[in-house]
Amino acid sequence: MNSKGRKTATANLDDYDKAYSTFRWADAEREMGLDPQVGWNIAVEAVDRQAEGPHRGKVAFRFFDGLSTVTLTYHQLKLLTNRFANALRALGVAPGERIALFLPPLPEFYVAFLGVIKLGAIVVPLSPAFMNDALTEMLRDSEAAAVVTLRELLGRIERGKLPAMRRLIVVGSESSPAGTWVGYDPVMAEAADDFTAAPAAREAPIMLMYTSGSTAKPKGVIHVQDGITHYYQSGKWVLDFREQDVYWCTSEPSWVPGISYGIWAPLLHGVTSIIYSGEFAAARWYEILTRFKVTVWYTTPTALRRLMNFGPENPQARYGIKDLRHILTVGEPLNPAVIRWSEKAFGLRVYDTWWMTETGGQMIANFRTLPLKPGSMGRPLPGIQASIVDEEGRELPTLAVGQLAIRAGWPAMMGGIWKDEEKYRDYFRMPPWYLTGDLAYKDADGYFWFQGRVDDVIKKAGERIGPIEIENKLNEHPAVLEAGVIGRPDPLWGEVIKAFVVLRPEYPWSPELQAEIRGFVESRLGSRFVPRDIEVCAKLPRTTSGKLMRRVLKAMELGLPVSDVSGGED
Ligand code: WTA
Residue 165: which residues within 8 A CB-CB, separation 6 or more? Predict the structure, then answer.
């Protein structure tokens, strides 16, 4: 496996039923030339294998910021990631330590990401949209030893609260004279460009991806090396990668699709990826599809709805979009109207995929080789067993709504929740199932249909937002006595954040106070957490034990009957 390099897969999923009954993950390991006895390094497999084979001079990433383009070939990526691994080592970083990337999707993000993993350290991608309090929470929890960031983001890193942090590496800057930080360029200039990564076991952690749930704090989902076969197989079966593909995953790398399908799957297949680091703008997005001749496009339903709202009716002709051949989405329900629009707009249907940060890779998807049922998430990938279960973990019959569960033990499955064993075990409390927290049913053809969440997690434009994180921040504002936060269905964003607050009597409600409270949340957590609306109420619905009943708030908001409020009051 050392000298051959990896070729792009061409085998599609021609016969789903056959693959579903015969495929074993070990087959993928063999196909990829992985030796589980020796172990491997996923970054070496994704980058160096390509660089050492026929893809040496092929573009791995084409970065576009709206003005200019920067490219990195597989060979360049190999050398730069080696350098970064060497640079980290020279800075005293040891394997197993956590290195946070508090950076937009610049070339340096991708180099650092893969370099950290080559060293055997654990990468922690953090969105530059996080403000101080949100950021501090994750840097503390992960006990990150170093952060790679930009000069303009340094102010958010409150070093006094981060005893584990030893190093700041600043992209686009010289090292600071006082030694507060080191510059990315100078440390890279001193590093050698060959590096030998130590092979590691399947279960060796490579990344902590923070995500929200129904708790007060985001949790660090641990991804492990074993995910490699899953990223590879789903790249082949679901994304349908071919040698000549130009692929655009629109998700930022601080959200899991931007990693599993923004880094791993395309690299493992040796395709060229477009990375766009600018803001959303419909005309700009269409320009990217045309200019870079994108063929495979992985995005979100919200992004497509935003394009749909923008018009024109026929972007394909208007912008000369000729090369696109496959469109997929993730993160939230894909409403059939979007598929109908896409058929007119691009002459292509949209293929929904379902998965979670915790599952690491796609679990359920619509495949090009199977009939597409608009509104359905599709069918499980070969190697994945999905079912609908009741509260005791018993499998439910066809068409019954229950919790979506996956038989535990697929390659990309999380290896743990960082420093929270109990939280981790909770997902597996009904063996043999991993419990997703999603409600769904399965139809007679084996297609799954999403029905909602069992908890109060909010999905805005696919982003997963924990209501308690926002409630706690609202409670820190002097005017707020208590707060309840829900997601309100929205035709464009999927959901928007709505907050109910009880004010302290000395604070009269006013538009100014509303703006101030929203600004308070924005400046401490970040704009994605800001409630669209804040409604003042006299009291919040609580159970007799004092637990906030968000589903009552939601029913009130939607004008629905408040059913089953047993244990509640008022
Ligand atoms: C939701 C995103 C409906 C679901 C990769 C899941 C979806 C949560 C779909 C995970 C889909 C994801 N249809 N809902 N195709 N895909 N979800 O971790 O509720 O940010 O549990 O991962 O998104 O969100 P996460």
Answer: 139, 144, 145, 146, 147, 157, 159
CB of 331 sitting under 6 A from ligand 1? yes
Cα 535 to averaged position of ligand 1 atoms, centre (Å): 28
Return the amino acid letter for 475. Answer: N
Edge-to-edge order in the sheet of strand 494-503: 480-490, 494-503, 533-536
| Top-confidence residue, 7 or 103 | 103
Does residue 231 have its Cβ closer than 6 Å to ligand 1?
no
Q: Which two tokens stand for residue 325?
A: 């051949």
Amino acid in position 555: A
pLDDT, residue 551, reads: 93
For the chain, which domains are there? 16-435 (3.40.50.12780), 458-558 (3.30.300.30)
CA distances from 3 to 6, 33, 49, 51 (A): 9, 11, 8, 10
Cα 87 to averaged position of ligand 1 atoms, centre (Å): 37
Ligand 1 pocket test: which of 459, 465, 493, 528 has the largest number of ligand atoms within 8 Å of its C-beta?
459
546's CB contacts (< 8 A; 6+ apart) are none
Each residue's pLDDT tens digit, 86-145: 999 999 999 999 999 999 999 999 999 999 999 999 999 999 999 999 999 999 999 999
Mean pLDDT, to the nearest integer, of 205-214?
96
Q: Which ligand 1 atom sits closest to the C-alpha of 364?
A: 15
Any idea what the Cα angle at residue 484 is, between residues 480 and 489, rounded to 5°?
A: 130
pLDDT digits (tens, 9 = 90+) for 407-459: 999 999 999 999 999 999 999 999 999 999 999 999 999 999 999 999 999 99
Supply the pLDDT for residue 13. 84
